[in-house]
């Protein structure tokens, strides 16, 4: 990673094909830092002073960052250089990058296909070797799913491990900054630097992590569980299943103990996510009213200005989430939807807590499908189902990682590991062992 050669002209040429980077901008880190001049990209919903922060939205098209996110600042202090900001689904809502106001990102493995999302720009840029790693945000899988679709590593640490100060909020109880990297080692090095308490984020954890010293040491007597539901739930592609079974066999041959278990509430994951995340989003996005940030349509009446600004500024998917969230939080429906979803979130947590008493990690495919062609999926539901295996980690605040595990029909296939909260160092060791 240290001697990675970044050539801006070359990067721009590559980017013409994939539309992964919205803005190239060099912000140099500390000259005395260990990683001086090693380049990285930042998802365009994380503030970096001197760059825009569009969130992939028209409403923030001309909005400039007013400060630098803590996570980015820590990397700059260690010498890393920001080289630009990456494309994303608008406000990180989506799993395909087709929801960006600035055009879709293309998957470097097949330019007709989506790179996944919402951190699709970061994933595509790392896969196209523009940078050795990039920052993303993960609310329901947005670091891990695009990593899987682009054949790289995507790591979402324990909730609160990395400060969210400077990350534009989507669903605050689920949001987490994570790393998309060319390998597990780069993910571990950068997460170690970014993690720790930040007084600007009350949910940040007081941790002082060593994720790297033992990374190459094998864990003995490893016990891994696979939820039976992977093989039972609808919507998991059969090529994915057969490749997944092959992977299990390889791991078993390498001495890993693998059992099947039940995660009874896994089948409700997508349903509760699409109540909780839009509810939080509808509240978080109320700040984009044309008064405080970005776009403002001119009108003589205040209420009309709010409405027109939001109508012009937000795209379809963001509006859909705001509608859903406003509905599920409304006093008439709160108990029927939000309160119920919150209860099931607790039950899901219990399922996983129980599993972690016996197992080091839980293994699934990262995505139930391979990357579809741009425009191929028609209904929002088809997109929502892509997050089946990645959402639980956000719901329970646990660390999770996607690592490449070969190809299916020339397209990258990724496997996904979740471990118990704060067990990030061991999870990375397991991932390294499986890499
Ligand atoms: N695809 C999910 C969604 O649309 C997850 C997004 C994310 O993790 N930011 O909400």
UniProtKB/TrEMBL annotation:
Entry EC no(s): 6.3.5.7
Residues of the Amidase domain: 10-428
Entry annotation: catalytic residues: 43 (charge relay system), 118 (charge relay system), 142 (acyl-ester intermediate)
UniProt GO BP: translation
Catalysed reaction, written as an equation: L-glutamyl-tRNA(Gln) + L-glutamine + ATP + H2O = L-glutaminyl-tRNA(Gln) + L-glutamate + ADP + phosphate + H(+)
Pfam family, one: Amidase
Single GO MF descriptor: ATP binding
Keywords for the protein's UniProt record, in alphabetical order: ATP-binding, Ligase, Nucleotide-binding, Protein biosynthesis
Origin superkingdom: Bacteria
Gene Ontology CC terms, in alphabetical order: glutamyl-tRNA(Gln) amidotransferase complex
HAMAP family: GatA
Physiological role: Allows the formation of correctly charged Gln-tRNA(Gln) through the transamidation of misacylated Glu-tRNA(Gln) in organisms which lack glutaminyl-tRNA synthetase. The reaction takes place in the presence of glutamine and ATP through an activated gamma-phospho-Glu-tRNA(Gln).
Assigned protein family: Belongs to the amidase family. GatA subfamily.
Assembly information from the UniProt record: Heterotrimer of A, B and C subunits.
Protein name: Glutamyl-tRNA(Gln) amidotransferase subunit A
């Amino acid at each position: 990673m240290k001697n990675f050669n970044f050539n801006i002209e070359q990067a721009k040429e590559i980017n013409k094909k994939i539309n992964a980077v919205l803005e190239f901008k060099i912000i140099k880190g500390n000259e005395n830092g260990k990683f001086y001049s090693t380049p990285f990209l930042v998802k365009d919903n994380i503030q970096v002073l001197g760059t825009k922060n569009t969130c992939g939205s028209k409403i923030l098209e001309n909005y400039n960052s007013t400060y630098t996110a803590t996570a980015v600042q820590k990397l700059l202090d260690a010498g890393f250089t920001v080289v630009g900001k990456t494309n994303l689904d608008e406000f990180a809502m989506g799993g395909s990058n087709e929801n960006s106001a600035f055009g879709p990102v293309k998957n470097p493995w097949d330019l007709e296909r989506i790179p996944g999302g919402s951190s699709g720009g970061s994933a595509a840029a790392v896969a196209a070797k523009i940078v050795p790693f990039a920052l993303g945000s993960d609310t329901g899988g947005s670091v891990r799913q695009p990593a899987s679709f682009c054949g790289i590593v995507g790591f979402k640490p324990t909730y609160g491990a990395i400060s969210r100060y400077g990350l534009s909020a989507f669903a605050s109880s689920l949001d987490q900054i994570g790393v998309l990297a060319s390998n597990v080692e780069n993910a571990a090095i950068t997460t170690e630097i970014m993690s720790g308490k930040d007084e600007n984020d009350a949910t940040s954890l007081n941790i002082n992590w060593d994720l790297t010293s033992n990374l190459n040491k094998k864990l003995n007597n490893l016990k891994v569980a696979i939820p039976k539901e992977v093989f039972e739930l609808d919507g998991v592609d059969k090529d994915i299943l057969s490749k997944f079974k092959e992977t299990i066999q390889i791991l078993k041959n390498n001495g890993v103990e693998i059992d099947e278990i039940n995660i009874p509430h896994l089948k409700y994951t997508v349903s509760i996510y699409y109540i909780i995340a839009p509810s939080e989003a509808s509240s978080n996005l109320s700040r984009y009213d044309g008064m405080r940030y970005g776009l403002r349509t001119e009108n003589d009446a205040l209420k009309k200005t709010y409405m027109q600004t939001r109508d012009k500024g937000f795209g379809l998917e963001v509006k859909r989430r705001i509608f859903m969230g406003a509905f599920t939080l409304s006093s008439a429906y709160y108990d029927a939807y939000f309160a119920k979803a919150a209860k099931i979130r607790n039950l899901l947590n219990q399922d996983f807590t129980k599993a972690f008493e016996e197992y080091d990690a839980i293994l699934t495919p990262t995505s139930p499908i391979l990357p579809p062609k741009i425009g191929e999926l028609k209904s929002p539901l088809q997109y929502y189902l892509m997050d089946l295996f990645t959402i639980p980690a956000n719901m329970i605040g646990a660390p999770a990682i996607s690592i490449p595990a070969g190809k299916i029909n020339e397209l990258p296939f990724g496997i996904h590991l979740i471990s118990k909260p704060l067990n990030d160092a061991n999870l990375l060791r397991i991932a390294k062992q499986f890499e």
